[in-house]
């Protein structure tokens, strides 16, 4: 088994006033050659956007982009006329594919929104751009992992253009849950949204990240009430 540990305080940080962002991997003005990606996982940003603010229209192509609001609501629009709002409890995926221009802003004029934005390299290039979003009930991940993103079309999770699986777990203190890899050549990046956990013997705190590969299973034990995101991606 191989691992790589990224403590929360080691992340890149940029505070633009309207946007307070922490970068697990190199992004924008933050660059660390040892932290460019974890397999197909390219970006893991922890963003807080003030009320009434947001990202104006900007382009993307050939990237799978997952947004997970942790608090508040995020409004999006695109150059194809698409428009919507994602709230805490929902997950959104965008296949940028052959190219799309979109905007993201806080849906509230007064309250901040905190969300994770995650980029994954695609399996197939230049596909038709698309959005999808879904509400995943929190009670379905108590003391277990709930798959929210997968490469299985027409399943219970959101489809991703990659051999990748994202799972959320909400573990009560003292409880544990196993996670078995879907593919033997995958790695899993565990990100602690809240609380304290131990993953395969490594103690992690809030906003810490741990990449694990060359194994086929994780054991996640909650030291306190905790919420964890597992991102299984190809390593090559």
Largest sheet: 7 strands, mixed
What is Rg?
17 Å
**Number of self-contained structural domains:** 2
CATH class of the largest domain: Mainly Beta
Helix content: under 10%
CATH superfamily of the largest domain: Jelly Rolls
The low-confidence parts are none
Tell me the β content. over 45%
Total E-strand runs: 22
What structural category characterises the helix and strand content?
Answer: mainly beta
Calculate the mean pLDDT score and round it.
97
What does this structure look like?
The protein is mainly beta. The chain folds into 2 domains: 12-135, Jelly Rolls (Sandwich); 138-234, Jelly Rolls (Sandwich). The chain contains no helices and 22 strands. The chain has strands at residues 2-6, 12-15, 19-23, 41-49, 54-60, 64-71, 73-78, 83-87, 90-95, 100-106, 113-120, 130-135, 145-150, 158-159, 165-171, 176-180, 186-194, 197-199, 202-204, 209-213, 217-222, 226-234. The strands form 4 sheets. A 7-stranded mixed sheet has the order 1-20-17-22-15-13-14, with no helix packed on it. It has a 7-stranded antiparallel sheet with strand order 2-3-4-11-6-9-12, with no helix packed on it. Strands 5-10-7-8 form a 4-stranded antiparallel sheet, with no helix packed on it. Strand 7 and strand 8 form a beta hairpin. The protein is globular, with a radius of gyration of 17 Å. The mean pLDDT is 97.
Briefly characterize the structure.
This protein has strands at 2-6, 12-15, 19-23, 41-49, 54-60, 64-71, 73-78, 83-87, 90-95, 100-106, 113-120, 130-135, 145-150, 158-159, 165-171, 176-180, 186-194, 197-199, 202-204, 209-213, 217-222, 226-234. It has 236 residues and is an all-beta fold. The model has no long low-confidence stretch (mean pLDDT 97).
């Amino acid at each position: 088994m191989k691992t790589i540990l990224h403590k929360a305080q080691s992340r890149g940080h940029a505070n633009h006033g309207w946007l307070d962002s922490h970068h697990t991997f190199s992004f924008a003005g933050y660059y660390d050659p040892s932290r460019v990606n974890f397999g197909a996982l390219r970006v893991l940003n922890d963003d807080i956007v003030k009320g009434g603010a947001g990202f104006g229209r900007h382009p993307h192509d050939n990237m799978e982009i997952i947004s997970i609001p942790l608090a508040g609501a995020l409004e999006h629009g695109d150059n194809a006329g698409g428009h919507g709002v994602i709230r805490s409890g929902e997950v959104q995926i965008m296949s940028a594919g052959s190219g799309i221009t979109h905007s993201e802003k806080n849906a509230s004029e007064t309250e901040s929104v905190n969300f994770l934005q995650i980029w994954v390299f695609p399996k197939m290039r230049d596909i038709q751009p698309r959005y999808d979003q879904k509400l995943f009930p929190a009670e379905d991940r108590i003391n277990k992992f709930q798959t929210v993103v997968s490469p299985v079309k027409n399943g219970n999770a959101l489809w991703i253009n990659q051999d990748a699986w994202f799972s959320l777990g909400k573990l009560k203190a003292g409880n544990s849950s196993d996670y078995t890899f879907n593919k033997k050549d995958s790695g899993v990046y565990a990100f602690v949204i809240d609380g304290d956990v131990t993953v395969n013997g490594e103690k992690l705190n809030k906003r810490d990240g741990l990449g694990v590969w060359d194994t086929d299973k994780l054991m996640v034990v909650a030291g306190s009430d905790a919420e964890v995101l597992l991102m299984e991606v190809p390593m090559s």
